[in-house]
């Protein structure tokens, strides 16, 4: 099954969609790896109800200075054209428990977190995420969902290159529509599949968004309504659940299969 990047503007519901999809896929008997590639995301573990592993991928690879050294060597021409952190392909079941934590058939891993002020940009995180995804093999009943930081920086960092498709979460705002158009162009350039999921909509905003995205030839693959219960569960830091959205989630999962 595909490796899917979940993208969108700040606060549109990326982590919420990743969580709801992951839980529904688990319900369906699938194996799911959630990759947190957002270095400032603190709430995802609580949302999916899986504790982070002891190490981030960055820590597992020796920390940011070690990763930076390798990237700098590549820039100086002492390494291959692309710095490689993984030499062999590996499947989900052979990933080290040092950086992947499983709760039944649902796992969480984090690429890295910003731990200190002035520690530099997040580019090394993009480099290891891309290389990890490029070496990750996924079987028929396995899914990989990649939660990203707000905006389209992950396109620049090459994370999309290591994935198969992009799902763009679109909340009812003009900014979200403009960003979706940009992301669709970048996804096409990367040669990957693209689709939108409307989130936090009511009847009126859904209709307007459908019209706006149709005018831009952007396919809508799923629709999640605004739910005050969901917002409340998130606020209280509890594991997310949205029983009213199960039918929509099942449809979305079928459409992208
Ligand atoms: N369908 C929905 N109904 C009500 N509230 C929602 C819905 N989807 C998301 N939210 C709320 O919107 C807020 C942002 O959601 P979430 O953290 O998933 O967004 P995000 O895109 O991951 O944000 P960030 O850009 O910070 O990573 C949260 O308070 C969440 O509970
Ligand atoms: Mg998030």
From TrEMBL:
Residues 4-238 form the CobQ/CobB/MinD/ParA nucleotide binding domain. SUPFAM superfamilies: P-loop containing nucleoside triphosphate hydrolases. InterPro entries: CobQ/CobB/MinD/ParA_Nub-bd_dom, CooC, P-loop_NTPase, ParA/MinD_ATPase. One of its GO terms (biological process) is negative regulation of cell division. This is Nitrogenase reductase. Coiled coil: none annotated. It comes from Methanobacterium bryantii. Gene3D superfamilies: P-loop containing nucleotide triphosphate hydrolases. GO terms for cellular component: cytoplasmic side of plasma membrane; cytosol. The lineage of its organism: Archaea, Methanobacteriati, Methanobacteriota, Methanomada group, Methanobacteria. GO terms for molecular function: ATP binding; ATP hydrolysis activity.
């Amino acid at each position: 099954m595909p490796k899917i990047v979940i993208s969108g503007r700040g606060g549109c519901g990326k982590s919420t969609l990743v969580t709801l999809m992951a839980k529904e896929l688990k319900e369906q008997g699938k194996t799911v790896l959630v990759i947190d590639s957002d270095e400032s995301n603190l709430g995802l573990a609580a949302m999916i109800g899986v504790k982070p592993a002891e190490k981030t991928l960055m820590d597992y690879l020796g920390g940011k200075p070690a990763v930076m050294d390798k990237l700098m060597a590549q820039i100086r021409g002492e390494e291959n054209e692309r710095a490689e952190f993984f030499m062999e392909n590996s499947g989900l079941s052979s990933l080290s428990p040092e950086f992947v934590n499983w709760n039944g058939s649902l796992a969480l891993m984090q690429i890295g977190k910003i731990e200190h002020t002035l520690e530099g940009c997040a580019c090394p995180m993009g480099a290891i995420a891309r290389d990890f995804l490029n070496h990750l093999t996924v079987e028929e009943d396995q899914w990989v969902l990649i939660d990203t930081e707000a905006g389209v920086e992950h396109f620049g960092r090459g994370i999309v290159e290591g994935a198969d498709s992009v799902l763009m979460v679109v909340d009812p705002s003009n900014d979200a529509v403009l960003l979706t158009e940009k992301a669709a162009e970048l996804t096409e350039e990367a040669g990957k599949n693209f689709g939108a999921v409307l989130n936090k909509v009511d009847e009126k905003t859904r209709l307007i968004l459908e019209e706006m995205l149709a005018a831009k030839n952007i396919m809508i693959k799923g629709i999640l309504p605004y739910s005050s219960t969901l917002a409340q569960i998130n606020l209280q830091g509890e594991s997310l659940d949205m029983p009213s959205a199960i039918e929509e989630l099942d449809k979305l999962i079928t459409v992208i299969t």
